Predict the structure.
Amino acid sequence: MTKSLQGWVASEGAFELWGKTQWAVFTDPADWPDPLRAGPGTGPVLEVLSAYDHRGDATGTGMPMDTGRVVPELADLTDVPALAVTCAAAFRDDAIIRWPMPDATPAMLQELFRVILTP
Amino acid sequence: MLWKIRGCDGGAAWLPPGVAARFAEIEQSTRAAITPLTGDGGVRYAAFWDWLGAHLPDEPCWFLDLVGVAPAAQGGGLGRALLMHGLQRARADGYPAFLETGNPRNVPFYQSLGFQTVAEQRAPDGGPVIWFMQTPRPPSSAAISTLWP
């Protein structure tokens, strides 16, 4: 774990590149730091995680862990009417939608998206 | 795959590679219902979407069919969250992501998420300029292991 976390601190790569091959290293029991075995403490894990947090704040690099505090959910058929209204409003001036249908009314755009979004 | 966010304030349709490869077939299956909504019997709509569909990359990719956020909810990060959600899946699958946009204001936004413009073309018959954008193919496991031996 310490090797893996220290690798992250030293790296300039994106978080996902660091993480893809690090799971085995991260979870190697032989490399568990003593504070983690013993419970909460202030040893290397805390130091390394603090360094990671500090680096993220300072540079803004890495993959954001919280994308706006809202998380997408899989929609289903019951969501299609509401999503059609949302998309019709969002695309009301969008060239991809308006150019082929220049005279479409808001109700027609909603119907368009209802058709497009229905599986 | 249809995703929603904060109720239905935003939505995104991401097509995984197997579905994106059938985009033309899927899009054409909707035309009978869409034609009555057009003013010319669907002629312009069909020509435009045939042209757009022909620009999908040949290589497998995750295709962002659409992403939309209600005007009152725009600027709050919902679109970005919907984009990143699909991009993370594309990366995890090892595929690039692809999109088409006709809104020049959105190009820098998509660039900020890793998309690069692969073509910028005006649609036939005086249609709008469309930007075709794609993310780089994620590095393979083998490539990553050379970074982390």
Observations:
- Chain B has seven helices and six strands.
